[in-house]
Queue: 4 jobs
Job 1
Amino acid sequence: MVQRHRTSFAFAAVCALLAALPAARAQTLPDPFRTVEGWAKLPAGRTWGSLTAVDVDRNGNVWSAERCGANSCAGSNIPPVVELDQVTGRTLRTFGAGMFVFPHGMHIDRDGNVWVTDADGKDGKGHVVVKFSPEGKVLLTLGKPGVAGNGPDTFNRPSDVVTAPNGDIFVADGHGGDSNARIVKFSKDGRFIKSWGRKGPGKGEFDTPHAIAMDAAGRIFVGDRGNNRIQIFDQDGKFLEEWAQFGRPSGIYIDANDFIYVADNQSDAKRNPGWKRGIRIGSAKDGIVTAFIPDAAPAPDKDGSSGADGVAADAAGNVYGAEVGKLRKYVRKN
């Protein structure tokens, strides 16, 4: 009887050690980056609000959508979509004034078009995904402005969006609480094709599908933040695998060389014990984490968040982190 207890204890200890290894490895990695202080420059008289959206276009310029100098654009006429020069950080263009409630996700497609999700609703606005030309012309709107739903033509707090090479559109629909927890697929002209997922911890289920990205093979990576994992699917919604080694994913970016960048701004002793906040960088091919940029933000705010909520990288390997009140640029150390 004593021997059985000892064996059970030893087995449990080994399991605990193995479970801790990914967390330990994922944050004892080198940080090969330094921060470029004061890089992002808004027009005079304007300050950054909360921002979770960032992406890089084919010219290398950086785009973001910030919440009108606050944490909401409701009632504001400040244009939240901002294009910045890659080198100087100077604002080149802004648009989208009066269109959004809670700008959240952003995607720049292969033609340079700018997609923005609105993850809240108020006064007949929000719960939509909007496609703009690079000049700010509205080309397509998915969802019904101000209407929350889970049908083929409605969203409930859509968090992020990505497009495939053939133009198919994938929306991560939901932002926790009583919102949706699914992925919705549309054709390039906005025709509903299918959806998959529901709230839960199982394979193919979600608890806040906060980010979405696509690798070179066309696989769909979903930042299932509430479940502390990335889930990977084919484009028909077939579950392929899940990764926990990138922490609690708020933002995901995959570059042309299949490097994956994952922003974790919520891990703590309660929600993801043993993990630190920061940006983890690795391979989208095999899931191996190779670098870690520690959270440079101050202490967490009241909801436990700090640091980069959204993340992107340019062709030169510079990394951009979208935070509350700041857009950070990280460059390689000499």
Note: Confidence is low (pLDDT under 50) at residues 1-20.
Job 2
Amino acid sequence: MSGETGGAARRYVLATFNRDKARELHALLALPEIEILPWSDFEGAVSPEETGETLSENAQLKARAAALHTGLPAIADDTGLEVEALNGEPGVRAARFSGPGATYASNVALLLERMRGIPPGLRGARFRTVCAAVFPEGRIIEAEGVLEGRITEAARGARGFGYDPVFEPAGLSRTLAEMTDAEKNEISHRGRAARALARRLRERA
């Protein structure tokens, strides 16, 4: 199967089954030269186990699996939450912080429990995202985005997903979950990584 569509847009597979991530990445990677296809549209698609020790390894692992499965270039991301008071935890294991069967709610609950009693000045944290594009011939293009902030004492806001209700970006008084999608995408770690990757892909489209 060719990775080109009549010499116009290059097709990329988005290697995620997380609908929340997919929605954000579709918006952030929107370029006329790029057509994004969901991996779930391809028969037999199965997300690989995220065994990498770094965000880069996990992003590449997922994108490589999709590229091999579909024969098309594939894009994946991996995001970590680094909390200073927890010595950088949960880090690359943010999505699995509360163990097997982890949910957004259980991860947030465990984080707030671990942060109980820590004063405002010591609640610094950062989101870090790596976006990777892997091509069937093995070429890799990567970009990273970081968002500095702090962990709040309680969850606030009903938008977003993951740790958004307890993450307040530096210099702001609202959590990511209290922002609109457009506001969040403008400043977020995933937004920064995806826009940087999109610029590099546009140069090669």
Note: The chain is about 30% helix and 25% strand.
Job 3
Amino acid sequence: MTQITEYQKMHHYMGIEMNMQTWGLLEKKDRSEQGDIRMVMFAKASLFHWKLSPKFHPVNEQRGEWLISRVYSVLGKDEEALIHAEKTMKLTEMFDFKDFDLAYAYECLARAHAASGNKKESKNWYKKAKHAGELISGKKDKEIFEGDIKAEPWFDCLN
């Protein structure tokens, strides 16, 4: 059995910590411009550290790409949001992720298209996300997803 090094433990810890810092800023109503920059950097750092964690699995990369897409969507940076949403979907398809992770892959594509003002694509992916969300098996996972999909911004694309 391979011994986990302190270096690897640090990356695991930092992946989690950067994720929590990102969410703290995402949920903050009155973020500054500096807070927006930090939020992007934290999301990217979280994925970087997860990739070096001894507990890394492909789903961690998929969720990290989702988080980066979400951050860019919230900031209205549609091109970057779409790039990371497409990476999320590519990983979802490559590893045949289902349930919670499939619903979130659809959600981030819907939100990225909303950020770009593409109502048709946003609504299309939103419907897929809602349907996939209804099929999430875990009660807590379903509650988390339902809360996230209701969260703004949707840039008036769902009307």
Note: The chain has a mean pLDDT of 96.
Job 4
Amino acid sequence: MRLLSEIEETFAVQLRCLPEIPAATREHTFLKDRKFRFDFAWPSCKMAVEIDGGTATGGRHVRPQGYEKDCEKLALAILDGWVVFKFTSKQVKNGFAYNSVEKYFKKTGC
């Protein structure tokens, strides 16, 4: 299992401040024949959150091979019926990610 990033932990703490949202599954594998995992998932709702850290520092998510794998993962998730939110570290820090997830759950009632 991979080491969880500081920004993912920040988002996890933020989620705990939303008692009306069910607890997320961390590192959820969503395709049985692939190793792809979501950072945060709500399998019963088929909703997931991916936190792309390092976007401003040239991290894996913005390098060609990493970006291509992320695109493949997103496409396969959508084809499997998942709604996937992707957020940057900055969006976690400024509350955009937190607010988006809260609005999604309020809107869908999931």
Note: The beta strands are 25-29, 37-42, 47-52, 83-88.
